[in-house]
Amino acid sequence: MSLLNFWKKEENLFDENISIEETRFVVLDTETTGFDYENDRILCIGALVLQNGVISVQNSLEVYIEQAHYDKSTAQIHGILKAFILKRPSEIEALQQFLAFLGDSIIIAHHTIFDVTMINKALERNGLPELKNHRLDTAFLYKKTLIKSHLFERKDHYTLDDLADKFDISKKDRHTALGDAYITAIAFLKIVKKLREKKAVNLNSLFK
């Protein structure tokens, strides 16, 4: 699929009657040199497909991007060292791989705005339009599962570690792009299950 056709198709993708099960989700995480949208860069994109309640590890993408910007302090967190022996594509090549993998899927991420904004900045640098995919945020969805009570103090910010602890998800591969995407995918399935314990849930309700 050409990039031009990709964005043309994307404009008309969302059918509000599609169920959660039949929807193709792409669960996304990025590892970056920092948190500055303008100056920092993506080191790695990790993504996997979630459909029919199945996390498809076999159908996944993990691409390390060639980059000149190196921050030793963040490398200690995500472990992506400058001398890490991997054949890395250029930023534009990595973006093309990601776009082909993503297609017209709905994006799921934890604190989605960060990952999507970093990708959109990379797309902009390479003269490409920003993502138009619909997106869901597990940080926001998790709050919908919480009981509203003055006896229960809700936090403003729930980390991926918070969700992993809450749902007893292994953090073995935490702080790798594909590992965090996998944790996010499990958390999403757990969240949908909890929401369904309260009332009927469809794709539309997740966006409200």
Automatic annotation (TrEMBL):
A Pfam family matched by this chain, by name? RNase_T
Specify the domain of life of the species encoding this protein: Bacteria
Q: What is this protein called?
A: DNA polymerase-3 subunit epsilon
Q: Which SUPFAM superfamilies match?
A: Ribonuclease H-like (SSF53098)
Alphabetically, which GO biological process terms does the record hold?
A: DNA replication proofreading
Q: How does it assemble?
A: DNA polymerase III contains a core (composed of alpha, epsilon and theta chains) that associates with a tau subunit. This core dimerizes to form the POLIII' complex. PolIII' associates with the gamma complex (composed of gamma, delta, delta', psi and chi chains) and with the beta chain to form the complete DNA polymerase III complex.
User: Taking every annotated instance into account, which residue ranges of this chain make up the domain Exonuclease?
Assistant: 24-197
Q: Return the SMART domains for the record.
A: EXOIII
Entry function: DNA polymerase III is a complex, multichain enzyme responsible for most of the replicative synthesis in bacteria. The epsilon subunit contain the editing function and is a proofreading 3'-5' exonuclease.
Tell me the lineage of the source organism. Bacteria, Pseudomonadati, Bacteroidota, Flavobacteriia, Flavobacteriales
